[in-house]
Amino acid sequence: MEVLCVIYAPLVFFCSNRFCNLNFSGVPYTIQIIPKGDCSYCCPLDPKNDVTLHLSTRINGNKESLMYEMMGDDFFIGNNKTIVLYIHGFTEQATGPAPQTIKRAYMGRGEENLILVDWSTLSALPWYNHAIENTYFVATTISNFIDELVSKGVTLDRFHIVGFSLGAEIAGLVGKMQSGRLGRITGLDPAMPMYEWAGRLARLDKNDALFVDVIHTDGGVLGFDTPMGHADFYPNGGTPAQPGCDVEKIVEERRINDYVACSHNKAWKYYADSVVNPYEFMAVECKNVRDFERGVCKSNRETPAFMGYAADNHLRGNFFLTTNDRAPYGRGIDGIIAGEKLQSTT
């Protein structure tokens, strides 16, 4: 069977179905020759292989176990640990730097059931618009998995979904699909391109879980700078360039992969570090970054919040802090005392 494929208009050509499985997946990008999705020239979606779930626990020696055939497995009922699902962003894959860094961080704690969601063939370069269209399919797959566990007795409040970029928007969709409320969603610099004018029903929103916390690092560029959750954290002001992301340093250190998305990627790097060092990301509530820089919110330092893993689910408002330019990123109390010197640290 032949499939009509359009790569870039006006280039049109015919190709066989074998091209649908031709992709280049490596670190850190996935490139798909032909997009997958629901369109006239797209390769068809494969429910079993296009979205896969990979379980990691200390019980299985930190090895990832493919879970597609394990839906509803009694394993999750036999323990009361939080079930964390991590959803990667555009062009990434579960074997890439971000998910694997998150995995190492959680396995170091050993206190949660971690599931890496891989949707790399649906989020491959250069098909960003198709990736957005595929988010509903991915969210539906994850939601069905959650429904299976809930039908076996697992409560919704045990689920914590962590999503980076487009993964954060998927997390919001999953929350919207539930009959009740998920326990927590953590949005790591939720994707802004093509979501700028979307309402709360189309993007991550505080109503998608009992507690929604968001870390903003590339606000106004690849991520949102406006509040989206119950608690919104703005490290180093929440906008580019984040510490360590100035162009000269990237070129000098030959970090070419960071050239476009360095500040965006800081969101998952900060979060992973917070799993390892949960109380090093002290933050202070403040109305806006200008007040934080001027030290207007000094009185709030007496009751600091924590960004990332240790964020309290009762937090409400906007929170600010500064970080180091490289790991370990957390600065402890210095991260809020140095608020007045924010511009000099970036």
TrEMBL record:
Lineage: Eukaryota, Metazoa, Ecdysozoa, Arthropoda, Hexapoda
Top-rank lineage group of the source organism: Eukaryota
PANTHER family: GH15759P-RELATED, LIPASE
GO MF, any single term: lipase activity
Protein name: Lipase domain-containing protein
InterPro entries xrefs: AB_hydrolase_fold, Lipase, Lipase_N, TAG_lipase
Domain Lipase stretches: 80-329
CDD domains: Pancreat_lipase_like (cd00707)
A Pfam family it matches: Lipase
GO biological process terms held by the UniProt record: lipid catabolic process
Subcellular locations according to the entry: Secreted
Gene3D superfamilies associated with the record: alpha/beta hydrolase
Family designation: Belongs to the AB hydrolase superfamily. Lipase family.
Main localization of the protein described in the UniProt heading: secreted
Any Gene Ontology CC annotation: extracellular space
The entry's keywords: Secreted
SUPFAM superfamilies for the chain: alpha/beta-Hydrolases (SSF53474)
